[in-house]
């Protein structure tokens, strides 16, 4: 049997989708692939090499950083810097974005935003975590130092986005606006192989992912939607199934494959929700739309939001189009003041 195509072969094969690019985006995706392999290795050895646990430092989000968070952040920064395709990088782990000042970087046309290890609170209990990335063309003049406007672009301007999920296997899932494809890492060969071609959300979904511990703080429309999903209606396959891992990448990946919705609504303890627009919600929204799904903040499409600051948070409802549209209807029927 012929072996599946590798990620590298796939990138080259689809190079024609970028007639103006001289291979920089392909090289950029390859550096993300390389960094993903290194992080995969570290995560899979974490328990053995005693790098589990807290690094004793707080990141700008005030969350105690896990050692693997720091490792993953450094690995992606160094790999992306070394390849020279990126003029600037923003990360959940960094207060401000990094402007790469070397001449070859200033000539580069892409910027990257990453959540290097999303769901890292799960690391010590061996639950799936992931890396999320979002890629834009710079808007400031080539040859200059990147500026805020390069990073504060709406999600519609993304040229590529994706995630690595470090679960029972490590899979890299990404889109460049021509559909969503997933590649599973074979550690024995050291390559990612196409395992999930042209991913699409199923027409109907029956899984919902939300931290119901926050139920009391949710907007009325969300409460009504959750109760609706829990009502008995055999024809519509309700009650739906609750699945919530505390790791966005894991919940999103399962919902995209099997059909479901993820919600992180606003609440009194999180007035704008918890997830970050630039390096969690926008990349997942791009993937969701490319897979036939939908992503809203409750009022508008996530990718239409014009960011105001690097780490801004937004309420996030994302998944199968039909389910997100029903959630939207409940929010319209029970508007918050
Ligand atoms: P909570 C991880 O910190 C994260 O950003 C997402 O990966 C995850 O879905 C969510 O937060 C979990 O948040 O408040 O339910 O623990």
Structure description:
This protein has 337 residues and is an alpha+beta fold. The protein folds into two domains: 7-196, Fructose-1,6-Bisphosphatase, Chain A, domain 1; 207-333, D-Maltodextrin-Binding Protein, domain 2 (3-Layer(aba) Sandwich). The protein contains nine helices and 15 strands. The strands form three sheets. The chain has an eight-stranded mixed beta sheet, with helices on both faces. Strands 12-11-13-15-14 form a five-stranded mixed beta sheet, with helices on both faces. Strands 1-2 form a two-stranded antiparallel ribbon. Strand 9 and strand 10 form a beta hairpin. The longest helix has 22 residues, at 24-45. The protein is globular. The model has no long low-confidence stretch (mean pLDDT 93). 6-O-phosphono-alpha-D-fructofuranose (P6P) binds next to loops.
């Amino acid at each position: 049997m012929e072996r599946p195509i590798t990620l590298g072969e796939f990138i080259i094969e689809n190079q024609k989708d970028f007639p103006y690019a001289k291979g920089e985006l392909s090289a950029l995706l390859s550096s993300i692939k390389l960094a993903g392999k290194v992080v995969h290795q570290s995560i899979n050895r974490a328990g053995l090499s005693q790098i589990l646990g807290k690094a004793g430092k707080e990141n700008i989000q005030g969350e105690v950083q896990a050692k693997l968070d720091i490792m993953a952040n450094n690995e992606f920064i160094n790999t992306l810097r070394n390849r020279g395709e990126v003029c600037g990088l923003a990360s959940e782990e960094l207060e401000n974005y990094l402007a790469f000042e070397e001449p070859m970087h200033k000539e580069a046309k892409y910027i990257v935003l990453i959540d290097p290890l999303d769901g890292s609170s799960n690391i010590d209990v061996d639950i799936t975590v992931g890396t999320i990335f979002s890629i834009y063309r710079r808007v400031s003049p080539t040859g200059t130092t990147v500026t805020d406007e390069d990073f504060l672009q709406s999600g519609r301007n993304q040229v590529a986005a994706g995630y690595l999920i470090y679960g029972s296997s490590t899979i890299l899932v990404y889109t460049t606006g021509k559909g969503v494809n997933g590649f599973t890492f074979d550690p024995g060969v050291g390559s990612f192989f196409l395992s999930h071609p042209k991913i699409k959300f199923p027409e109907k979904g029956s899984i919902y992912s939300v931290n119901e511990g926050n139920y009391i703080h949710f907007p009325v429309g969300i409460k009504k939607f959750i109760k609706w999903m829990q009502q008995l209606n055999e024809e519509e396959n309700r009650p739906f199934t609750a699945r919530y891992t505390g790791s966005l990448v894991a919940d999103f990946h399962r919902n995209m494959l099997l059909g479901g919705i993820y919600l992180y609504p606003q609440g009194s303890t999180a007035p704008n929700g918890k997830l970050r627009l630039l390096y969690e919600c926008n990349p997942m929204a791009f993937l969701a739309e490319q897979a036939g799904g939908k992503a809203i903040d409750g009022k508008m499409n996530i990718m239409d939001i014009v960011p105001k600051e690097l780490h801004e948070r937004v309420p996030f409802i994302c998944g199968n189009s039909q389910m997100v549209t029903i959630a939207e209807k409940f929010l319209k029927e029970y508007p918050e003041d």
